[in-house]
Amino acid sequence: MTAEKTMPKVYSVSELVVLVRSVLEGSFPMVDMEGEVSDFKPYPSGHVYFTLKDSSNQISAVMFKSAFAACDCRGQIANGVRLKVRGSVTVGPRSRCQIVVRRARLQGEGGLMRKFLELKAKLESEGLFDSARKRPLPFLPRRIGVVTSMAGAVVHDICRVLMRRFPALEIRLFPAKVQGADAPATLIAGIEYFNSPPDGWLADLMIVGRGGGSFEDLFCFNDEALVRAIAASRIPVVSAVGHETDFTLADFASDLRAGTPSMAAELAVPELTGLLHQLDELLSMAVSSLRGRYEHCAERVDMLGEMLSSELEFSWHRAEAKVEKLSSNLELLSPYAVLERGYSLTTDADGLVVFDAGSVKSGEKLHTRFASGSIDSVVV
Predict the structure, then answer these.
(1) What is the CATH number of domain 13-113?
(2) Between 20 and 30 A from 49 (CA), which of 7, 76, 133, 264?
(3) 36 phi/psi in degrees, rounded to 5
(4) What H or E segment, with its residue span, contains residue 34?
């Protein structure tokens, strides 16, 4: 008689995860641990997720809303700080080992954060981050250089937004590494390429950046040589590294910091449809203003014309009255006026008035004028 073989139990994925969770939660109902915070992400729910790490390993961590709200140092928890936490170990989403943090206490700065702050203070003291040295972006750039990775959605997002906002653009990409020890050298090469293009293709501005990632993933943008290259660029630089909550030294050295690569593209160029709408509004305002000015001037010309006509008519009547008065005076003084009273006027052949009968000679012709008619006579 043969003994039956005992078959090993075959677990489903969920069964094994439940088993591992029970072992972890039973073995580590509450532990104290210390590590450097990385990939810190708050959520609208009030929960916060992050990673605790040391020089060799890391573990996922979560603080639920109530625990985070009760934490005295919640406003200081950020990438790069060191935390001492107390919590329970469990298996979280995607079957990863995770610590549920109940309490946390600040322990100081982590190595990367300390390096970040020291270099920031050094470059800041040199004036590399001064707002006075930052240049405004050109209003309407026609050529835009992009320094980022060919892989991923970042380059496609940037180009899509740029072309949607202003289709008549020239865009050139310099492919660079955006993570790891080799990344700064390739990013610097891209900046130098657009500052001294071998084929003379001069960009109006440059976008340098990458998509989101942990504090460590983005740390290549804190490289001193890269930061200095951005500050020395003759072309205005828009820094677009990570998400809105991420800050690197490249952001401080650039002429403009954008929260995301897509936002960098939004800030780089105006929207063509918006510009055309503004032009239509300005044209309408100009036409309206010119029409109003024309109507005002035409009304003034009409008014001045009426005033001129009135003045001419008044001057005419005044002159006419003056002429009539002078005419009357002239008639009163005229020697012909006395003829109406029965007198006559006698002149010699030369038209001279005869005042004395003794002044004429026999045979001389005389002309006598009456109020009505005249006669010629000869002196006898």
Answers:
(1) 2.40.50.140
(2) 264
(3) -95, 135
(4) strand 31-42
